[in-house]
Amino acid sequence: MAEALRQDTIAAVATAIVPQQGSVGIVRLSGAEAVAIARQLFQAPGQQVWESHRILYGYVRQPQTQVVVDEALLLLMLAPRSYTREDVVEFHCHGGIMAVQQVLQLCLMQGARLAQPGEFTLRAFLNGRLDLTQAESVADLVGAESPQAAQTALAGLQGKLAEPIRRLRATCLDILAEVEARIDFADDLPPLDEVATQHQIASALAEVTQILATAERGELLRTGLKIAIVGRPNVGKSSLLNAWSRSDRAIVTDLPGTTRDVVDSRLVVGGIPVQVLDTAGIREAMDQVEQIGVERSRAAAQAADLVLLTLDAEAGWTEADQQIYEQVQHRPLIVVLNKIDRVSQPPQLPISPVVETAAAKNQGIEALEQAILAQVQGGLQAADVDLAINQRQAAALIRAQAALEQVQETAQNQLPLDFWTIDLRSAIQALGEITGEEMVEQALDQIFSRFCIGK
């Protein structure tokens, strides 16, 4: 697969194309013919030197007619000092649609192939510039929706995850070598120091478990959190959304049933991307349109990671609130006691946790965010965000953890050393899959298919 990829030259638009909004668009090529294609298309006036890591100024021309397609800059990055460790050329064109698309089509007409999703990064991996954890971090960095998610992705790109995984795999390889040496050369070597070896296995297992504990944080940072604001009509759900998002996302009136559909807003809470859904007030609908809105509210509550059951502090806990609670009580839930500024004494409520707010006056939002973090993170918002594994990495670590636990059990039961090697090899393979040192082609296709084209 790696050899096949090195035989052709790929091209793609490497920047987002937004009509009338993008000032610069980049067309990227990688492969043995990248420079030759660039020379056919790009005219650099004067005595500009075509050498690596130099930017040339000039014009992209149609080779047959010499018609100017765009005034552009050309960036040359020759192998191995490039992202893919192949010859890479970038045309920095005017943004928008037409310029970059025309330049891309000219590249394809000169023999380049349109890149597949993630193929530039795949080549970087196959050519040894990145390991698999770094490649996945590239995708995470591009898709980051919060500063904390970007920071974690950047740490992964810098090898903060690969380093401990490689160290753990090296430890397991060393143990396996010691064990196999005693099997093959039992008469020539002293007996295996089983106490010291079991201590090494226990230390490796503890580190695997520690890294595995970051899976939940990684999932939160990558996929975010979906929160549904539910409650009776006119308890202040829309006011809460507006105060929280610092915008007028939802219409607010004193009339019950104003919100007829689910309104969403995207926020960042404690470094975690959050999608907040303001739902229609749940009650017996007055008309068909409101009935549809109520059904959508119920569906949003069932699909949410966390439900904010919003109450009116003046009304207290009503029979209608009890009915709504019975519909959502199986979901993680926080009670928001709104309009607290209108009462002298908060009413007693049968459930907790409770956060008091006065959304119309922008009060209580910070306390609400702290309650959300305490509910869903359980302390995961720590300052150390260097490690946050994804689902694929977690699955491999779970297999490594099980294999090391089995080695421990084998040693404790004083079984022959041959039995140790079986599970040690399983742990080594699982750890190698994380960094890509042991990987099958189908898994690579699945990983890189999630990338955007051009990256």
UniProtKB/TrEMBL annotation:
Q: Which NCBIfam families match?
A: mnmE_trmE_thdF (TIGR00450), PRK05291.1-3 (NF003661), small_GTP (TIGR00231)
Task: Give, as one word, the top-level EC class.
Answer: hydrolase
Q: Which residues cross the membrane?
A: none
Which family does the record assign?
A: Belongs to the TRAFAC class TrmE-Era-EngA-EngB-Septin-like GTPase superfamily. TrmE GTPase family.
Listed binding positions for GTP are: 234-239, 253-259, 278-281
Q: Which UniProt keywords apply?
A: Cytoplasm, GTP-binding, Hydrolase, Magnesium, Metal-binding, Nucleotide-binding, Potassium, tRNA processing
GO cellular component: a single term: cytosol
What CDD domains does the record tag this protein with? trmE, TrmE_N
Which cellular compartments is it found in?
Answer: Cytoplasm
Where does the chain bind K(+)? 234, 253, 255, 258
Instruction: Identify the residues that bind Mg(2+).
Output: 238, 259
Q: Which SUPFAM superfamilies match?
A: P-loop containing nucleoside triphosphate hydrolases (SSF52540), TrmE connector domain (SSF116878)
Its function? Exhibits a very high intrinsic GTPase hydrolysis rate. Involved in the addition of a carboxymethylaminomethyl (cmnm) group at the wobble position (U34) of certain tRNAs, forming tRNA-cmnm(5)s(2)U34.
Q: How is the cofactor bound?
A: Binds 1 potassium ion per subunit.
Question: Which GO molecular function, any one, fits this protein according to its record?
Answer: GTP binding
Which cofactor(s) are needed, names only?
K(+)
What biological-process terms (Gene Ontology) are attached?
A: tRNA methylation; tRNA wobble uridine modification
Kindly list the positions annotated as binding (6S)-5-formyl-5,6,7,8-tetrahydrofolate.
28, 90, 129, 455
Q: Which HAMAP family match?
A: GTPase_MnmE
Assembly and partners?
Homodimer. Heterotetramer of two MnmE and two MnmG subunits.
Pinpoint the TrmE-type G domain residues: 224-377
Whichever gene encodes this chain, its name is mnmE
> Does the keyword section mention Hydrolase?
yes
Q: What is its EC number?
A: 3.6.-.-
The protein's name in its UniProt record:
tRNA modification GTPase MnmE
Q: Does the keyword GTP-binding apply?
A: yes
Where is the major localization of this protein? cytoplasm
